[in-house]
């Protein structure tokens, strides 16, 4: 909720926080003073998610390739 | 032919060995021209001449031999009898009781009594096989061994095989060729055993007992095709027990089309031919390989799917936030405008109220105005300085006064008070 320095959240935690931010912004009570702050936090979280996805994508690709080209027998 | 010493009347005939032999032979031929005989066939030997020699044995208590006769089957008779047996899916094989028609013969040069087999009753042999088979099955059922081997788990990758068969036989080659063709890394340990004849029971049983020590995943017991009585060993109690008690699953391929031997019945799985056993093992390897491949594919698909979902969720949130932020601003502005309007509205209301009050006052003030009083006949008297006169005592005689009437003014002077 706050944009204070937190330990970097995991993907799932980041997504949950993004959903909370979205719900807050979409909610009736709009605190315009906090809008920019929340959006800033959201941007950080989105970048974080993207980075995690990129990293996972690369790893998954490599592993999948290993799985798919694994020799049938020794 | 009598041989008598010259000049002496022999009191009794004296035979030479061959003469007596011939006498015995003739006597036997006369009194026992042909009889039916039942006995267990043992020690079968085929001579280069094409004649078959064997023993016909009768066993009593505890398998003790209580009767034994040498038997011969001349080459000419053999081909006729073999053809007849073959029509019943049989052949001459050791260890099986046979009912045969025999001529009793004594052969003087050897002094040997033997029976010449002229006919074999295939129906009796078949019945005898079936009876022994049923006995063995009943015993296995009683001791709960009938399905013991079936319950042994067969590994998904049966790569280490203990092969029990006759080395170099067609069955041996067929089985190995099927495995070799597959390209899988089967490791076969051969446990050589005679798979027919008298030694078969003991050979196969001891090979089965030795199989676990080879570290095999399963035992494969095969032999080539043959006649039904060739299969007798696989109906035997000894082999059936060894299969049933094997800690390894036993797969049989005993090369017969219709009948199932007792060994087949108690085995983990039975196949018609050695090749079919090989094909089964290969198919099992293929199934395992396919399962692994499918698992890998599913894993890859799931991983990609999860990743796609994460990407999707993230961009969804990014888009939603992008839409939500301006909307939030717009909503803020709308709220502000609404407030402004409310303020304006409030102000107007207040203004209207104020002006109404003012008007009321004006009307009242207007009601109190002196002109109205004057009109009613009152007048206002002021001193020269303009002070309204309210008290006569304050006026000295001679003071000039100005009186305002409803219409016009008059001036006067105080005479007394």
Briefly note the structural class of the backbone of chain B.
Answer: alpha/beta
Radius of gyration of chain B: 66 Å
Strand content of chain B: 15-25%
CATH superfamily of the largest domain in chain B: Cobalamin-binding domain
What are the key terms here?
heterodimer, A: 74 residues, mainly alpha, 2 helices, B: 417 residues, alpha/beta, OB fold (Dihydrolipoamide Acetyltransferase, E2P), 5-stranded mixed beta barrel, 5-stranded parallel β-sheet, 9 helices
In short:
The complex is a heterodimer of chains A (74) and B (417). Chain A is mainly α and 74 residues long.
Could you give the topology of this structure?
The complex is a heterodimer of chains A (74) and B (417).
Chain A: H1 11-26, H2 32-68
Chain B: H1 17-31, E1 35-46, E2 52-59, E3 65-73, H2 75-87, E4 97-107, E5 112-120, H3 122-142, E6 160-165, H4 170-182, E7 187-192, H5 200-210, E8 218-222, H6 237-245, E9 250-253, H7 262-266, E10 269-271, H8 274-368, H9 370-375, E11 380-383, E12 400-404, E13 409-413
Parallel strand pairs in B: 3-5, 6-7, 6-8, 8-9, 9-10
Antiparallel strand pairs in B: 1-2, 1-4, 2-3, 4-5, 11-12, 12-13
Helix pairs in contact in B: 3-6, 4-8, 5-6
Report on the structure:
- The complex is a heterodimer of chains A (74) and B (417).
- Chain A is 72% helix and 0% strand.
- With 74 residues, chain A is mostly helical.
- Chain A starts with 10 loop residues before the first helix and ends in a 6-residue tail after the last helix.
- Chain B has nine helices and 13 strands.
- The mean pLDDT of chain B is 87.
- In chain B, the strands form three sheets. In chain B, strands 1-2-3-5-4 form a five-stranded mixed beta barrel.
- By secondary structure, chain B is α/β, with parallel strands linked by helices.
- Chain B folds into three domains: 17-120, Nucleic acid-binding proteins (OB fold (Dihydrolipoamide Acetyltransferase, E2P), Beta Barrel), CATH 2.40.50; 134-285, Rossmann fold; 372-413, no CATH class.
- Chain B is rod-shaped.
- At the A-B interface, helix 1 and helix 2 of A face helix 8 of B.
